[in-house]
């Protein structure tokens, strides 16, 4: 599977907060951009080293002349946010067609839980639901008002509640009351930093919300989980391609994707962390050791697998490649 890229130009840039920059991008040739649904993200190739990073689209869906991104300047990042923050109006970069594994479902009601920069995909969802008359409520959490992007658009919105760490405790997010017990026909969407994600998803589970009602998107991978003794998944194993029968050894210090690419196999890939879903393939034989944070239990049960992050519990893992 090949990725479709186009050249884009920064037509506008402004600082939403001291650490969050907003970019409006248009095609360099003036043509329209691809259509997308709320919750989608794009790959962005930026910087002299050809860095590829994923950023959620936070503008209203349906506007194809421009895409809007909001990027947090993260000192501990792998270089993408610094390269993005160095961009100025008129600069060019390359972007890929949108992908979406975090879209709105056909639920009767939607609860959107955003932490920090996690507002980006949920803002697009809220804009879409406003346009279609959907029933929703957005809870937006940030450390302070000064660190909350798009505050002017959200602070007086009747379907939005703001929660800031430096304001009175009673105004902070309390999922016992702000989310409550499971409600039929209600879908919950969670996006934000790891600590926020862990709290929101864990608390929702404690309240009895079924996994099928919870939808999430992470911006960074979970810490690796070591296999239990005797469980497998550590050490080397062999990956086999169902199309040719070719076999390659995957050592302990390399991913399946690393090995495939090193041997000239055309395998789709993007984030390299098991969070975007671009590299997903199907397992034909063997027992995978899933270490991604993008596949659902149903998808794993159906044989889907992320070569960039997951491994094998069996000596041989055959992939549909």
UniProtKB/TrEMBL annotation:
Co-factor(s): FAD
Identify the residues that the record assigns to the 2Fe-2S ferredoxin-type domain, covering every copy. Answer: 237-321
What is the protein name given in its UniProt record? PDR/VanB family oxidoreductase
Q: Does the keyword Metal-binding apply?
A: yes
An example Pfam family from this entry, by short name, is Fer2
**What PROSITE patterns is this protein classified in?**
2FE2S_FER_2, FAD_FR
Domain FAD-binding FR-type span(s) in chain numbering:
3-105
Coiled-coil region: none
